[in-house]
Design a protein that fits this description.
heterodimer, A: alpha/beta, abc type-2 transporter like fold, 14 helices, 66% helix, 8% strand, B: Alpha-Beta Plaits, six-stranded mixed β-sheet, four-stranded antiparallel β-sheet, 28% strand, globular, binds adenosine-5'-triphosphate, binds magnesium ion
Chain lengths: 379, 307
């Protein structure tokens, strides 16, 4: 005890105090655990639905046997329900716009001829991707259906066309929502959003609570440096952030088989910067908040853009430019990309670096700001 | 350690929203003395105490606390200061022991556990050490706060209304404790609204509307006020009070249970004013030495008249 460096001892004292208070605050404690669970289940299961029999219009410009095979294969796949034919692309687009169909499948002219000649004719699928969840599985099924259907027809001298690559070039046009969202996409995003929510709000509350209850005065009258207070207040929440992240990854893998392709160590390292950003942000907010209600209101002002403009709910590239600019000013945006990259694409340090360095810049800047804003006095 | 004066400040001024809530405070407090701060609500006691312990920066003025500069060495001052806030401000959701241990760690005390145990024992709270502070009664909280504020053996104690809401017996014990601490050489600056407590201070400082209007020993302050006071008993005192109040020469009339204190600074004018009522022989009139309470009321009435 005596050998302990005094600053470390003060920091540890604040950490212990914070943990003890947290442990006794049942509501906050529940929030830390329940928010990830509820969100994960909500998003996970909402997205896990696998809609079938989606209304589809056909634009058939080739009347070969192959076209008929493709059409019947689509019908048999369960995902598509052919509700009629259209005569032109414009007519098809109108149906899409009117929400009358989810897909327009176009079999172009000379499809059969090109196929036989080995020219890999296009099979164009225009999809209404405003609800990307709805079309994901259907589109996955097309390729297989097409290849399977043609397998029967391509016999004898045409058998060589069955070899890979697929004899047909399936072109998917996702309209209105270029990025396309899968259920996997949501889990890394959820880590980022939950860390933002709990991190910002809890630090903001932890500091404002001291002010509201008057204990700030006692704290300020004691010889403890703002950096020590900050570190001591923040570290417990870093730990909580880690627990939440790995909890989400674990549950996601268990329930939704979300793959973890990249290194969890790399993810943990990036988490440090991201969690620190959020906590410093909460700390900064708390300096301006007079009471806990204000702290929550201010946190929401930060959390909302983090949910809406970070690429979590809506594809980043699908947002208007101004929204992208706002989104680029949020640490959450960068961390979502990092987490998706590591978990889903197996990215390494080189690939995530373009999104990692902005996080470090945020971390340093926000920490400096929060230190400056921390009131050493009661003024 | 070397400085003779524990507090030596001049011209301390604090401005809030363009209004000087404390202005031009000059204060010299020798080591080992108990100084009492009195004054009406909002007269600036808390603000002054906060400036002395570095919680707020004075807008003007400065000086030293425990020999260290108020403006530049507040970190050093804090290490040797014990401060008890007006509103109880330890952590409600921590136990008594946890609060004390926290203070011990922040001040970097050696033998922390031992000190905490000793403090608990002196408080008589050893058996309830694990009880959450939020569940303590008012008196116990104050005792705990004092104990926490003195855990690091400070050279000076700033106590902001430490006895408010505390029963008379506990108040008595509290003051005994303060005297023990002063005997050990600790300087104590204590604010209070209880006039009987002024008698237990070596000197008192009288504040009104952000200024020190008088200071000195309790006896001196009373004498310095130059007050003449008559105590009246018997008859309908409430009716009498209303009749006396407007009279010139009568500065204040205050009811104390079954008697009325009638005071004024101009003795002759006062006697003239009350003469007719004395002649009625309905009441018993007796000249008494004014109490601190009379002096307090007198000063408060005066500032109200000025404002
Ligand atoms: N942070 C602040 N902002 C604005 N005004 C303030 C602030 N703190 C104190 N004041 C004002 O300063 C004046 C002095 O307040 P202070 O708390 O020092 O009085 P006090 O003598 O301690 O009163 P009490 O006996 O009621 O505790 C009051 O009018 C108060 O409203
Ligand atoms: Mg006060």
């Amino acid at each position: 005890m005596a050998g302990l460096f005094p600053a470390l001892r003060r920091m540890r004292a604040i950490m212990v105090k914070e943990f003890t208070q947290l442990r006794r605050d049942k509501t906050t404690f529940a929030m830390i655990i329940l928010i990830p669970v509820i969100q994960l289940l909500l998003f996970g299961y909402a997205i896990n639905t696998d809609p079938k029999h989606l209304p589809t219009a056909l634009l058939v410009r080739d009347h070969s046997v192959f076209s008929r095979s493709i059409v019947s294969a689509l019908e048999e796949s369960d995902y598509f329900k052919i509700i009629g034919s259209v005569r032109s692309r414009a007519q098809g687009e109108l149906l899409l716009r009117q929400d009358a169909v989810q897909f327009v499948v176009t079999i172009p002219e000379h499809f059969g001829r090109d196929l036989v000649r080995g020219h890999r004719p296009e099979l164009l699928i225009e999809a209404d991707a405003t609800d990307p969840v709805a079309i994901g599985s259907a589109l996955e099924a097309v390729q297989g259906a097409a290849a399977g259907a043609l397998g029967h027809d391509l016999t004898g001298p045409l058998a060589h066309l069955r070899a890979t690559p697929s004899p047909v070039d399936v072109r998917v046009h996702r309209l209105y929502n270029p990025e396309g969202f899968t259920r996997y996409n949501i889990v890394p995003g959820l880590i980022a959003v939950i860390l933002t929510m709990t991190g910002v709000m809890m630090t903001a509350l932890a500091m404002t609570r001291e002010r509201e209850r008057g204990t700030m005065e006692t704290l300020l009258a004691m010889p403890v440096h703002p950096l020590e207070v900050m570190a001591g207040k923040i570290l417990p929440y870093v730990l909580i952030g880690y627990i939440q992240s790995f909890f989400i990854i674990f549950v996601a893998e268990l329930l939704f088989n979300v793959p973890v392709l990249g290194s969890l160590w790399l993810l943990s390292a990036s988490l440090v910067a991201f969690i620190a950003c959020n906590l410093a942000l909460g700390f900064t907010l708390s300096a301006s908040a007079e009471n806990q209600t204000q702290a929550i209101q201010m946190s929401i002002m930060v959390i909302l853009p983090a949910i809406l403009l970070s690429g979590f709910l809506f594809p980043f590239r699908g947002m208007p430019e101004w929204a992208q600019i706002v989104g680029s000013a949020l640490p959450t945006t960068y961390f979502i990309r990092i987490a998706r990259g590591i978990l889903l694409k197996g990215n390494g340090l080189v690939e995530i670096w373009p999104n990692l360095w902005p996080l470090f810049v945020f971390m340093v800047v926000i920490t400096l700001v929060s230190m400056k804003r921390y009131r050493r006095t009661l003024d | 350690m070397t400085a003779e004066l524990a507090i030596d400040v001049s011209g301390l001024t604090k401005i809030y929203g363009g209004r000087a809530v404390v202005e031009g405070i000059d204060l010299q407090v020798p080591r080992g003395k108990i100084y009492g701060f009195v004054g009406a609500n909002g007269s600036g006691k808390t603000t002054t105490i906060r400036m002395l312990c570095g919680l707020i920066k004075p807008d003007r003025g400065g000086g030293t606390c425990l020999g260290h500069d108020l403006l530049t060495e507040s970190a050093t001052i804090k290490a040797h200061l014990g401060y008890m806030t007006q509103k109880f401000s330890y952590w409600d959701d921590l136990s008594i022991r946890e609060n004390l241990a926290f203070v011990a760690d922040i001040f970097g005390l050696d033998r922390a556990k031992e000190r905490v145990d000793t403090a608990l024992e002196r408080l008589g709270l050893t058996a309830r050490a694990e009880q959450l502070v939020g569940t303590l009664s008012g008196g116990w909280r104050q005792r705990l706060a004092l104990s926490a504020a003195t855990l690091h053996e400070p050279e000076m104690l700033l106590l902001d209304e430490p006895t408010s809401g505390v029963d008379p017996k506990s108040r008595l014990e509290f003051w005994d404790e303060i005297h023990h601490l002063a005997a050990d050489g600790i300087t104590v600056l204590v604010s209070t609204h209880y006039m009987d407590e002024t008698a237990r201070c070596h000197e008192i400082i009288f504040m009104s509307e952000g200024h020190i209007i008088t200071s000195g020993t309790a006896a001196n302050v009373v004498a310095h006020a130059g007050l003449m006071t008559w105590a009246v008993t018997g008859g309908d005192l409430v009716a009498l009070m209303e009749k006396l109040k407007p009279l010139s020469g009568v500065d204040t009339v205050a009811a104390f249970g079954d008697n009325l204190h009638v005071s004024g600074t101009d003795g002759a004018a006062l006697e003239n004013a009350i003469a007719p009522y004395k002649a009625e022989k309905i009441h018993q009139w007796r000249e008494i030495p004014p109490t601190m309470e009379d002096v307090f009321i007198h000063y408060m009435a005066k500032t109200k008249g000025d404002g």
